[in-house]
Amino acid sequence: MNGWSAWPAPAKLNLFLRIVGRRADGYHELQTVFRLLDWGDTLRLRVRADGRIERHDALPGVPAEADLCLRAAHLLKEVAGSARGADIALDKRIPMGGGLGGGSSDAATVLVALNELWGTGLGEDALAALGLRLGADVPVFVRGRSAWAEGVGERLTPLELPPRAYVVLDPGVQVPTGPLFQAPELTRNAAPATISRFLSGAATENAFEPVVRARYPRVAAALDWLGGFGPARLSGSGGCVFLETGTRAEAEAVARRCPAEFAAWVAGGVDVSPLIAAVATFRAGASPSW
Ligand SMILES: C[C@](O)(CO)[C@H](O)COP(=O)(O)OP(=O)(O)OC[C@H]1O[C@@H](n2ccc(N)nc2=O)[C@H](O)[C@@H]1O
Ligand SMILES: Nc1ncnc2c1ncn2[C@@H]1O[C@H](COP(=O)(O)OP(=O)(O)OP(=O)(O)O)[C@@H](O)[C@H]1O
């Protein structure tokens, strides 16, 4: 042991996303279903006694002040008043700007893991509230349950969903979230749905899909190709798209046929984040790994 431990930062899919209003501060009220995946990034962390927070492998194009791992670590240190620091390394697999919540999940994992490693003792509600200051998608990763979400994504009702596999397709385009929420053609006043309508299969749309389809031809091409195998959907604000299948073998059969212009992989949906198991491992006195 060299003091490093490895912590999972899973990706998410939005199985449904509807925008039902806009708050006075310009943020949108939405309804969505977050499905956590058994696949994602890995954060490697090591406590430093000198109080410094150091990032070992900066992400291309992301300056330190925008790096969500660093912002999460500094925020926790400031709020909890910890004298300790951390070395942070990230094995990045989740495509950036893909609608899979990569940056948000990395931030949540840093908050949850450093809270353990520093012994700062914040509870889940406090960590989720800190996460919300970093991004609307962070709280679901802190709480670590697939969920029905309302508000800006922070009012969460855990869901137990049937076991499903997913083919996830990356068309290779980064879609920035902010401009999409500002798009004039976005439907932002839809009638609210209910959890039972989602569970019955009657609510599966993503409000961003028509906007992203029209603005990003490669995403439209990915939806069209994957749509040849079943109802393909956009995740979050895109650009990644996905298809739900009953078994991993079915998903793998589709992924194998993916044309070279896209990248495809297969992941399983989980009700509980692998981050929860990592915390339990750590509390049992072992070093988490993923
Ligand atoms: C599209 C989703 O990924 C669905 O899960 C989320 O709603 C977006 O979550 P996120 O990427 O964590 O978003 P943030 O980083 O908080 O916000 C990015 C920008 O999107 C806009 N934004 C975001 C969330 C929201 N409910 N309404 C908004 O209008 C804001 O202009 C904001 O400046
Ligand atoms: N650790 C990080 N991982 C990814 N992106 C980061 C990170 N830190 C900062 N960023 C910035 O955040 C932006 C959004 O990245 P992210 O991969 O979270 O997008 P996304 O999956 O589309 O998000 P969401 O689904 O939450 O809208 C990136 O383009 C990058 O500039």
TrEMBL record:
<comment type="similarity">
    <text>Belongs to the GHMP kinase family. IspE subfamily.</text>
</comment>
<feature type="domain" description="GHMP kinase N-terminal">
    <location>
        <begin position="68"/>
        <end position="144"/>
    </location>
</feature>
<dbReference type="GO" id="GO:0019288">
    <property type="term" value="P:isopentenyl diphosphate biosynthetic process, methylerythritol 4-phosphate pathway"/>
</dbReference>
<dbReference type="InterPro" id="IPR006204">
    <property type="entry name" value="GHMP_kinase_N_dom"/>
</dbReference>
<keyword id="KW-0547">Nucleotide-binding</keyword>
<dbReference type="InterPro" id="IPR014721">
    <property type="entry name" value="Ribsml_uS5_D2-typ_fold_subgr"/>
</dbReference>
<protein>
    <recommendedName>
        <fullName>4-diphosphocytidyl-2-C-methyl-D-erythritol kinase</fullName>
        <ecNumber>2.7.1.148</ecNumber>
    </recommendedName>
</protein>
<dbReference type="GO" id="GO:0005524">
    <property type="term" value="F:ATP binding"/>
</dbReference>
<keyword id="KW-0808">Transferase</keyword>
<keyword id="KW-0418">Kinase</keyword>
<comment type="function">
    <text>Catalyzes the phosphorylation of the position 2 hydroxy group of 4-diphosphocytidyl-2C-methyl-D-erythritol.</text>
</comment>
<dbReference type="Pfam" id="PF00288">
    <property type="entry name" value="GHMP_kinases_N"/>
</dbReference>
<dbReference type="InterPro" id="IPR036554">
    <property type="entry name" value="GHMP_kinase_C_sf"/>
</dbReference>
<comment type="pathway">
    <text>Isoprenoid biosynthesis; isopentenyl diphosphate biosynthesis via DXP pathway; isopentenyl diphosphate from 1-deoxy-D-xylulose 5-phosphate: step 3/6.</text>
</comment>
<dbReference type="GO" id="GO:0050515">
    <property type="term" value="F:4-(cytidine 5'-diphospho)-2-C-methyl-D-erythritol kinase activity"/>
</dbReference>
<feature type="active site">
    <location>
        <position position="137"/>
    </location>
</feature>
<dbReference type="Pfam" id="PF08544">
    <property type="entry name" value="GHMP_kinases_C"/>
</dbReference>
<feature type="binding site">
    <location>
        <begin position="95"/>
        <end position="105"/>
    </location>
    <ligand>
        <name>ATP</name>
    </ligand>
</feature>
<keyword id="KW-0414">Isoprene biosynthesis</keyword>
<dbReference type="GO" id="GO:0016114">
    <property type="term" value="P:terpenoid biosynthetic process"/>
</dbReference>
<dbReference type="InterPro" id="IPR004424">
    <property type="entry name" value="IspE"/>
</dbReference>
<keyword id="KW-0067">ATP-binding</keyword>
<feature type="active site">
    <location>
        <position position="12"/>
    </location>
</feature>
<feature type="domain" description="GHMP kinase C-terminal">
    <location>
        <begin position="203"/>
        <end position="263"/>
    </location>
</feature>
<dbReference type="InterPro" id="IPR020568">
    <property type="entry name" value="Ribosomal_Su5_D2-typ_SF"/>
</dbReference>
<dbReference type="InterPro" id="IPR013750">
    <property type="entry name" value="GHMP_kinase_C_dom"/>
</dbReference>
